[in-house]
Each structure stands twice: as structure tokens, then as C-alpha cells.
Request: fold
Amino acid sequence: MLPLEAEELLTWLATERGRSANTLAAYRRDLTGYAAWLAGRGTSILTVTPADLDRFVGERRASGAAPASVARQLAAIRMLHRFMATEGHRADDPTADIDGVKVPAGIPKPLSEEEVAALLAAPLGDAPIARRDRALLELLYATGARISEMSGLDLDDLDRPAGLVRLYGKGSKERIVPFGRLAATALDDWLDAGGRPRVAPERWARRGDSAAVFLNSRGGRLGRQVGWTIVKRHGRAAGIAAERLSPHVLRHSCATHLLDHGADLRIVQEMLGHASISTTQVYTKVSQERLWDVYRAAHPRARRAS
Reply:
């Protein structure tokens, strides 16, 4: 159970900062684990000391938790204690001098253009679900959207004649992203009489489902988890190992392929909805790595003697 001060923080993040339900759920998990650890040692968020926090981080590391997980939880804890100090729940911030957790910089592993083509060709047939899956995969790759953005996509967010889609990213930030001819064709097939209308129920179970672009097989709004399953299932059919593929990998692949073909970094940043250009710059490293791989394999003076 979360302390009242932590509940106040989550309410503030939702109402004042517009944090998404998924982000708030992650903060809740991290802070609940933190509060439980403190309670097990006879202290609380009101009395925890910097020494206690050092011990907490040390135990989390020793437990084998991934550095990214520890860093994320520590970020939530810092936010909580800064909030408590600002609101007057505590006179001090015990996290002020706690060292951060270094997370190794990971370079995304995009699919090749041939693998993407195989994935997008995997949904077979003309049944409504096959049409939906083709449209979902094409639009994910065409726009670099997150699966949560596709799940939340409404019919009013589409400008089909102009080939534009309005996406709502983290913090409900809005951006307009173009999509090309192949994605438009797949989307038209899904929204035409033989697709979405055949899945739509006579009576909608939940408010807002009737506006959704993508529906599940029961006629409700397509959830994030079902979106993951769709990508994984067609990835297997395309011969792509499960551990190499997720909806986010399609996002990585879209960004990398755009840069490979000369897209401006700032345009890719805008398209993906990155708040910082440094996030987008990760993809330039991917392209450089791929360039070196091709160079080493193809250039006669780059090959090592066997």
C-alpha cells in the first residue's frame, strides 16, 4: 500500500503533468516496492536517511536487477522526495546526494529492409483480421509510432486524403506524421466494408471503442498487449526470431532506415516525438555501425588476412 504522500504525487503527475496511465502504473510499482522495503526495516518515507537509500540501491543491484530497472526506480524515488520537500512533508530531501545508477548505452537493433518487407507481407488473406494486421504493421513502420499510440488512435486522427495521422505521445504531446502509399492502401482495405465494419459490434461495450481505428476480434479497442502479439506472430511467420522483434523494434527500424536514406535528424526527431535530439542521435550510431559492417565486408582493403 502506498503512503498518502506518494498518492498525492501520482495525482499531481496525472492532473498537472499529464502523465500517461502506463507511466503512472510504473511509478506506482516502483514506489510500492520502495515503501515495502522501508517498512521491512522499520522506517518510512518520512524518516528514511541517505544511508538507508544507499543500502536500498546496493541491495537492488546485488539482487541482479537490471541497471535500467534500478535507475528507473531511483528516479521515481527522487521525484517523490523532491515533491515531499516542496510540499512541506519533509524539511529535507534524503536523495539529494545519492549517486545515480549508470545504465549502459544500448544501441537499437533494427530489422533490415528485407526483414521489414517480409514482416509486412506476412498477414495473408482477405479476412478482416488479416486486413487489420496488415494496416497495423504498415502504419507502425510508416510512422515510427509506439504501439500505445496505435492503440489510442481514433478515426478522427486520420486525414486519409492527405496521408497524415495525428499521434499523441508521452505526456499527451500531439504531433502530425505522414504515411505513404502502401500504408494508405492497407489502411483503406481495413476501413472499407470488408474490414473494420465486419468486426464492429452492433452495440459497443465501452465508450470510445466506436472511435477506435483498430479493433480486437471482439469489437473492442485494440489493446497494447494484443498489438505486441500481432507483431510477434507475424514476425515468426516471416522467420524473424521472437527476441529480435517487438513493436518498438519497428519504430527503431523506421528511424534507422529514414536516416540511412538521407533524412534530416531534426525531421526524424519531430516524427518520432522525441523531446531531445540526443534521443534521436542514437539512431545515427546505428547507421554508422551498419555502414562499417558493409564496409568491412565489401572493401578489399578492409578485410583482415585469414
About this structure: The chain has two domains: 4-87, 113-296. The chain has 13 helices and three strands.
